Structures are given as structure tokens and as C-alpha cells.
């Protein structure tokens, strides 16, 4: 047997063991016990043992105590101070059998103490036990390091998500401030102008200089200003209502939902909005299709999508068809859709339509938050996604891609 090598490398089934003893007869005896199951290497001095262990750390060391130069105790201490070998178990194999010697050996960092002459069965058992413990500890350490890495990555992602949410919140707040400043400014200007006119008319009346024609002009102007005040205040109120919808807790718990009657109920509740203009509503859903989700959130989303279609899809005076549908998409996905046969998306709007406050009908009082609210609810509260696009045959298709069972932590 050559120093630093082990026989039968191709047949190694156990751990790499380093035997350290200045007596080659002892090395041969230990090797004969272990080499059928383990890769065995050896050193005949403490210095050589440290060199071999540093170059290629073993899984276990069998170490004699009484050696010239560095004795076993010194070798054990040095192994335990080297990070590369600190966790390598050391078993003393020695003729020193007093309790004091055994205690001292364990204090230096050894895990076990076997006295000579040794029993082959005892050596095999001790080696197997400490190899098993070491591998279990290494496995636990590796798992802990893996979990720590996962925690660090999860923490990084949460921090990034928080930064993105704060950026989105700042954008939302800035948008609300910009949007609401316009009607407030108009209302303040109108109120100030009306106040000045009232003061002027009061002075004319007090001086007995008010003529009928002036009064009629004032009343007409006051009526226009009052209408402008009413419409601008209503717009400000609509902006606040939509903004509240972004952060609203729609409440409710997950429930099993039979989708066809649920969709029929939603469309029926919106009848006052689609029937008077002459629009038609249809439900396209298998009778047995079900999902587990939050009905309050689903209802809020579908109502918003139907209102959006009624508001944007059809030019004034034209009626159309809006279809609310549901279909299974594999064993664990549901597709909910709201389709219309209207004008489709305007050119250049597809990439911006989900942005907060983006609207093509600002002049009619549209705030541009409805689809952004739908997008946020679909992802944050239902664990799905939302898309909207023009249909090839005309009209618009809004689609919710949702899990058949909304995750319980949402």
C-alpha cells in the first residue's frame, strides 16, 4: 500500500478515511478492517497527516496518540483549527486506556476513543456511526445554507416588490392630484366669478340702478356657472370614487361559485345601464362550470368590464351586443371574458390602456382608472392576469386568466 493512496478506488462505497500511526503494522491491521468498504489513506507522522488532510480533507481520521514529533493530541488540535478540516471527526486509536487519557483526548476535539488491541467489529461500528453523523450534519448544513439563500432571495424580491409598489403608489397619487386639481380649479374659478357677479348685482340693487335686462343676463350667467360647478364637482367626486376603488377591500371569503347563474346575476344587475340605450347582453358559459374564488371581487371586476364596454365600445346612438363568458382552460384554470361587437380599441392605445388615468374619453368625464383597477384586482387578489385587445372580427375582448381555486393567502 502506497502512502497517500487507497486500494480499490473504483469499488469505494464508503467514506474517505485517513489512518495516522507511526507503526505500519497497526496501519495494515486497521486497513484490513476497513478497506473493503472505504477508501483508506494513511500517514506515518503527524506532519504528513496534516499535509494530506489539508490537500484533500478526509471524511474521518483514525489517529494514534503516541507518535514522535507531533503526537495525536497536537494533530487533533491543529485539525480542529483549520476550517477545511474542523468538522472532520477524529477517533483516537491508542494503547492509552486510562479514563484521564480518554477524557483528555475528547477535550482536544475527538469524537471517540478506541483502545488497543481493538476489536474489528467495534472499529467498523464506530466508524460507521461517526460517518453517518457527519454526513447527516453536512446534509443539514447544506440544507440550512440552501434555505438561507432562499430567504435572502425572497427578501430581495420582497424589497424589490415593495419599491415597485411605492413607485406605483407615487405615480397614482401624482395622477390623482393632477386629475382632481383640474375640476377643483374650475370650480374655484366659477365660484369666485359668481361671487363677484353677485356682489356687483347687490351694489346695483342697493343703488336702485338694477334694470330688468341686467337681472336676466345675471340669472342666465348664474345658471351656467351653477351647471359648471355641478359638473366639475361631480367629476371630482368620480375621481375620488375611482381612487377609493383602487385600494378598496372588497371583502368576502372564497366560495364555490356556479359560474353560469353567477354571470347571469351580474348581467341582470346591470340591466338599467344596458337596456335603456338598446344594448343586448348574453351569457356564454357551460352549465356545470364551477370555481372557488371571491364572489365580491369577481362581481366588481365583471361589472367594471361591462360598464367599460358600454361606455367605450359603441358610438352615440348605436346599440350593440356584450357577451360575458366563462370556459375551463385545463384542469386548474378558468377564463372569464367580456366581449363586445363595437368599435374595438383605438389605434395606439393597446400598450397604454391599463395605465392609471389613461382614457380616450376624458372630455366625457372618463377618469381612466377602471381597467387599471381590474388589472390590479385580477393579479393581487385573485392570483391571475388580465388582458384586453381588439377582436379580429371587430369589437374588443377582455380576458381574465384565473386559477380555478383562488390561493387562500390572497
Automatic annotation (TrEMBL):
Pfam families: HATPase_c (PF02518), Response_reg (PF00072). SUPFAM superfamilies: ATPase domain of HSP90 chaperone/DNA topoisomerase II/histidine kinase (SSF55874), CheY-like (SSF52172), Homodimeric domain of signal transducing histidine kinase (SSF47384). Residues 130-172 form a coiled coil. The keyword Phosphoprotein applies. It catalyses: ATP + protein L-histidine = ADP + protein N-phospho-L-histidine. The modification 4-aspartylphosphate is found at residue 64. Keywords: Coiled coil, Phosphoprotein. Its EC number is 2.7.13.3. Transmembrane segments: none annotated. Residues 16-131 form the Response regulatory domain. Gene3D superfamilies: 1.10.287.130, 3.40.50.2300, Histidine kinase-like ATPase, C-terminal domain (3.30.565.10). Residues 175-406 form the Histidine kinase domain. The keyword Coiled coil applies. PANTHER family: HYBRID SIGNAL TRANSDUCTION HISTIDINE KINASE C (PTHR43547:SF2), TWO-COMPONENT HISTIDINE KINASE (PTHR43547). This is histidine kinase. The lineage of its organism: Bacteria, Pseudomonadati, Pseudomonadota, Alphaproteobacteria, Rhodospirillales.
